[in-house]
Design brief:
Distance between the termini: 77 Å
Strand content: 5-15%
Largest sheet: 5 strands, parallel
Helix content: 40-55%
Shape: elongated
């Protein structure tokens, strides 16, 4: 059954009602129709999508076979980025994705069509949309039937979408691992502070753990990636290599498809074919429910937060922990995934990764490296770093602070 998404800008009550009526008529014609208002009533109990409206809106452009752009003056403003800031944000993110798709296809347009529901709504159509066929199902008696015919037709030039296969079941060797019944201590090595992160991680790697997600957030060069590597290798030694996967979101960030391929390879599973990235992600995670899996995602920084495609993809993994008691996720970066109103929030532990804030931990580090002077000497140095960092200096980070302490405090000397 063909799936259809209605992209529109909510305006006055009559326009919103006309869009809703079109969605219901298309459903009655045998189509699977995605309409924000109907979905909110039928699936989310008026609470909105669990991944947030922006992520959901962005994903619908790729998730459906066809997309209908419901014309209106306000929609055209949003489409051409002429609307005031904060107006029609959901429609704007949909329009941006549609524009990207058309530009990449060099104007070839098998999936998107404009629909005009009222007199005057075909005025001001953006130039690069104006040349494509448009439907007027409320004005022309034959246009609704023509619209249904077009929506049910296969996408021109697209191969039939194969069913998602069930990935090959893991062998008994890969399914023998399980989470331990009690926490196993991770070797802290030479880490300064991070006590809360280590303890949260140790509690998470336990069968039936109440927390399944660890979010590590902090400034750059404060040891997050080093910590993630340590936790990654500990998990491999505890559960085996086929239960652990790690990806980095560094710029230029690989596509979600490439990231998913790396995860599948780490878990010794074939990458599901067919469907979009969301379908493949769910299929892959479903295929390894019978064994413990820990996914490490590094470099969750501002460029990921600003890109709904990637933040949505990460949210898929976090959301999967709701129904999979064998899945754990660790996300590290300068930012943390937004967790307010997310259903997975109850499973998450958010831990700052910033040893510079802990004066006792910094002093302890100095003592271990030979400092024998008064605590005030180290505290003054730490305070200077914090103040300069607050003024925007990226060089004032934990790594540089600890290097300076080591240079100034060789064994047997004091810092005056």
């Amino acid at each position: 059954m063909a799936s259809v998404f209605l992209s529109y800008r909510q305006g006055d009550a009559p326009h919103t009602q006309r869009v809703r009526e079109l969605a219901l008529k298309l459903r009655a014609a045998g189509l699977t129709v995605t309409h924000d208002g109907l979905h909110n009533e039928e699936q989310w109990h008026m609470g909105g999508p669990p991944e947030g409206w922006l992520n959901w809106s962005y994903a619908q452009i790729d998730a459906n076979d066809k997309v209908l752009l419901i014309g209106s003056a306000s929609y055209y403003q949003v489409y051409e980025d002429k609307a005031p800031p904060g107006v029609g944000v959901g429609a704007a993110i949909e329009a941006r994705r549609i524009f990207q798709k058309l530009a990449k296809a060099k104007g070839q347009n098998p999936r998107f069509r404009l629909v005009v529901l009222a007199l005057g709504d075909d005025t001001g159509i953006p130039d690069h949309l104006d040349d494509y066929h448009r439907f007027k199902p409320n004005d022309l008696p034959t246009d609704f039937a023509a619209l249904v015919t077009w929506l049910k037709a296969p996408v021109a030039g697209a191969a039939p979408t194969p069913a998602l296969p069930t990935p090959t079941a893991p062998t008994s060797a890969t399914t023998s691992a399980s989470f331990p019944a009690a926490p196993v201590t991770v070797d802290r090595q030479d880490f300064v502070d991070c006590r809360r992160a280590f303890e949260a991680f140790e509690q998470m790697l336990v069968a039936g753990a109440p927390k399944r997600i660890l979010l590590l957030e902090g400034h750059g060069n404060h040891g997050k990636s080093k910590l993630l590597n340590l936790l990654f290798h500990h998990t491999r030694s505890l559960l085996g290599s086929t239960s652990v996967a790690r990806v980095e979101l560094k710029e230029p960030t690989p596509s979600p498809d490439m990231l998913l391929r790396d995860i599948a390879r780490s878990l010794h599973l074939p990458l599901p074919v067919g469907g979009n990235s969301s379908d493949q992600t769910h299929a892959l995670l479903d295929a390894c429910r019978d064994r413990p899996v820990v996914v490490f995602i590094d470099v969750y920084d501002d460029h990921i937060v600003a890109n709904p495609e990637y933040s949505y993809w990460v949210n898929l993994f976090l959301s999967h922990t709701l129904d999979d008691s064998n899945l754990r996720c660790v996300v590290a970066g300068r930012r943390a995934p937004a967790r307010d109103a997310q259903p997975w929030e109850v499973y998450a532990v958010h831990t700052p990764c910033d040893a510079m804030q802990d004066k006792d931990a910094v002093l302890e580090y100095a003592r271990k490296h030979g400092y024998s002077g008064p605590p005030e000497g180290i505290e003054t140095l730490r305070t200077v770093f914090l103040r300069r960092r607050q003024k925007g200096s990226d060089q004032m980070n934990c790594k540089v602070l600890f290097e300076e302490i080591r240079d100034l405090c060789p064994v047997g000397t004091t810092l005056s």
